[in-house]
Amino acid sequence: MFSEEYIKGRGAQLNVPNRFDQHSHEMRDDFLNYCAVEGDEATESRTTIIDTFPKTIVNKVTSPDVGLEYSLNPYQGCEHGCIYCYARNSHEYWGYSAGLDFEQKILVKRNAVELLEEKLKSKSWKATPIVLSGNTDCYQPIEKKFQITRKLLQTFLKYRHPVGMITKNALVQRDIDVLRELAAENLVHVNISVTSLQEETRRILEPRTASIKRRLETIEKLSSVSIPVSVMMAPIIPSINSHEIMPLVKEISERGALGVGYTIVRLNGAIGQIFSDWIRKAMPDRADKVLHQIKNLHGGSLNDSRFGTRMKGEGEFASQVAQQFKIARNLYLKDRERPKLNCKLHEEYKDGQMKLF
């Protein structure tokens, strides 16, 4: 399946030029040949951790397609390496490439907890659900060491503030104790991203994420202790995972999921070049077919930036996907719904403890 140039264990196969840089560089063949002869690596493959101290941590989301008003990302960049990730482009704002840099240079927001507490204590702040991982996964591998996400959840609990989260990592199970306390007062929703039921597909699309088995186990464990959990099948990529809608929704239903959502793949910004390069190395036998089908979903382009259509696509294939999800929900998730997040408690806990008078 893979071409000789494929880099195993990573999503992106190259660093594309940063659109904000005045200059760009490229790997010349003579340099690559020299490295091969000398037995040297042409590029650094290890993950680098970079400490940052932002001034704010809660972000207003202006897109009407996303379904959330505020997000919070404790990390920038993501070692999971999902090849299709829309967040890759945001790494360019930090001076890095949306390609390999995105999964190798991880920025850690060291003061995230302090900034969140400051926000929740503000007299002007009115409780509105804040979603962890609006951009990059809050449970990516380095969370095991830094535990920033766990501390953020404890802060949301302290101030009785509603929080949502989306992750591909089974590490969320570590925090079931905090999540149960939040769920007891309708203060949390958890979304688990499951793109495929096929482990081989997962391995090449999302190389450093939790296995499909572990994600399904996570859905089951969370739901078994009354933590509301839903699933995002995102993105749907034609001829890669588009045939799995019905069996996937059936499987997550049996694990206790309360709902399912989806998006259609769109390759915005630098991701078009990154994905095209990747698929020609990872799936050379079907690369042209997949890229052609993606273009058909977006009016002949790999990307559509228009609100209202960019997340669901257009045309016959997009209609078929929408219809399949409608049928799947009716068959396997009928009469299930997540409890509404509670925004009424926070005002009484703004100083970190309930007001008695």
TrEMBL record:
Coiled coil: none annotated. Residues 64-301 form the Radical SAM core domain. PROSITE patterns: RADICAL_SAM. It holds the Pfam family Radical_SAM. It comes from the Bacteria. The keyword Iron-sulfur applies. Keywords: Iron, Iron-sulfur, Metal-binding. One of its GO terms (molecular function) is metal ion binding. This is PA0069 family radical SAM protein.
